[in-house]
Amino acid sequence: MAAVLLPLSNGHYSLEFESSDFPQVAEAICRRYGTPDRRQYPASAEYRFGGCSFTFQNEWDDPCLISRSSEGDSILHALHDDLEGTK
Questions:
Q1: pLDDT for residue 49 is more than 70
Q2: pLDDT tens, 54-64?
Q3: How many domains is the chain partitioned into structurally?
Q4: Vertex 70, ends 65 and 73: CA angle to 5°?
Q5: Counting beta carbons within 10 angstroms of the beta carbon of residue 79, is it exposed (0 to 12), middle (13 to 18) or buried (19 or more)?
Q6: Under DSSP, is residue 10 helix (H, G, I), strand (E, B) or coil?
Q7: How do 45-49 and 64-67 pair as beta strands?
Q8: Would you say the pTM of this structure is higher than 0.85?
């Protein structure tokens, strides 16, 4: 699994991964935080888990979860660590 944690210009983070890694990402989220709440929008989705909200985008088959807060940044760091441990 090749998950990448990218710092964004707004000071938050984006967790980027391959479409084929959806099952591992979903499993890591559920294992740590339970089933996320999801709200679909035309160009993105909002996922809520761990008390935080994340933007999910999958343009050009390049999925990512984008943090909106420092607490969300910590969650993405923990998920990245979990996913890197599944190599």
A1: yes
A2: 999 988 788 99
A3: 1
A4: 35
A5: buried
A6: coil
A7: unpaired
A8: yes
Closest CA to 25 of 2, 45, 59: 2
Answer whether 3's CB lies under 8 Å from 13's CB: no
Residue-range definition of the domain harbouring residue 8: 4-84
Q: Where are the beta strands (DSSP E) in 1-87?
A: 4-7, 13-16, 37-40, 45-49, 52-57, 64-67
Nearest to 29 by CA among 78, 68, 71: 78
| Rounded Cα–Cα distance for residues 26 and 42 (Å) | 21
The DSSP code for 85 is T
Q: Identify the CA nearest to 60 among candidates 13, 19, 7.
A: 19
Q: Which residues lie across from 57 on neighbouring strands?
A: 64
CATH of the domain at 61: 3.30.160
